[in-house]
Design brief:
Radius of gyration: 19 Å
Order of helices and strands: HHEEEEEHEHEHEHHEHEHH
Shape: globular
CATH superfamily: Alpha/Beta hydrolase fold, catalytic domain
Largest sheet: 10 strands, mixed
CATH architecture: 3-Layer(aba) Sandwich
């Protein structure tokens, strides 16, 4: 079966499920742990099952490991940091690769690093733009002493393909001499928030995650017309999507949730956060998860995010962040 045909079938199946609002009466692996030991065992089994779903889909895309083949353009001095336009070869087999922006702080490292992710249909340049819905959050981290990597990833029909490419982005950061590999985090808005969830859940090299404009329950995702690319085949039956975040525990996790976000109704977002916080409490890390709620639409906020990440990774983005719009 060709990749295109498989993608079409997967997309059609998920679209039909989304339109029908099919929420299972019972999940295969719900989080029911009452002790830290039970929580750790659930996490071990659930992560293995989730990675099994990823690998099942990924093997239909590619089974070869390819070199990162990072290619760099001319550096641009941005004052507080140096900007590089680069490309890497991920699951893209055309030879062109994916473009990404890399920023390096001035001064002596090693520095903390942030992977900054755009949403559906976006580009790397947008997460640096203070006039976009991203409010320049990548620029704020770059000026705050972080190495920043912001990829321009296409809309993937396969969630596994996106996850594989993003793990390669973490490889790029971890291998750079300017980066402290024990201080890498991820932040994203919209589909970028979804990718931040997947990536932090599956890749424990990420020490902190900011999920903006995405957190919800499965019922909440099905309650509005959302793009079905959020879902791995088999995930809907496995666990409520909000419980995927418990694979990040006990690492620091911040949700940005807007009261007027039409993509993710706030009542489901609040319910999802309540359940995740209860789960973090079982892990003994209740204070490691937070939610920043404000009255706005589907956009980045930043009021709590920069300080939250600074505390986890040791940067100073909160000092240099753009002032949130009223």
């Amino acid at each position: 079966m060709s990749d295109l045909l498989l993608a079409t079938l997967v997309l059609a199946t998920l679209t039909a499920a989304t339109e029908a609002g099919q929420v299972p009466a019972r999940f295969e692996m719900p989080f029911t742990a009452k002790t830290k030991e039970e929580a750790a065992e659930w996490q071990r089994r659930a992560r293995a099952r989730l990675l099994e779903l990823v690998e099942r889909q990924a093997t239909r895309i590619s089974t070869d490991e390819v070199a990162l083949d990072v290619r760099s353009g001319e550096p641009k001095d941005m004052g507080d940091y140096t900007l590089y336009e680069q490309r890497f070869r991920g699951s893209n087999r055309t030879g062109a690769g994916y473009p990404f922006r890399l920023t390096l702080p001035k001064g002596k490292g090693p520095f903390p690093a942030m992977l900054c992710l755009h949403g559906h249909g976006g580009k790397a340049a947008e997460v640096f733009d203070p006039k976009s819905i991203y409010r320049g959050f990548a620029d704020a981290f770059a000026r705050g002493g972080y190495v920043v990597l912001a990829p321009s990833l296409p809309h993937h029909q396969y969630a596994a393909m996106a996850l594989w490419d993003l793990m390669r982005c973490v490889d790029i950061l971890a291998e750079r001499p300017e980066v402290d590999p024990k201080r890498i985090g991820v932040a994203g808005l919209s589909m970028g928030g979804e990718w931040a969830m997947w990536l932090a859940a599956c890749d424990e090299r990420l020490r902190v995650a900011v999920v903006s404009g995405w957190m919800c329950t499965t019922e909440g995702v099905f309650s509005v017309p959302n793009c079905p690319c959020w879902c791995l085949p088999g995930l809907v039956e496995l666990m409520d999507v909000c419980e995927v975040h418990l694979l990040i525990a006990p690492r620091p996790l911040l949700f940005e949730s807007a009261e007027l976000d039409n993509c993710f109704p706030i009542r489901y977002t609040r319910e999802g956060y309540r359940r995740v916080r209860e789960g973090y409490k079982v892990f003994g890390a209740e204070d490691a998860v937070q939610q920043d709620v404000w009255r706005a639409g589907h956009e980045w906020h930043g009021a709590a995010a920069y300080g939250f990440v600074d505390k986890a990774l040791g940067g100073h983005a909160a000092r240099n962040s753009p002032r949130p719009a009223p």
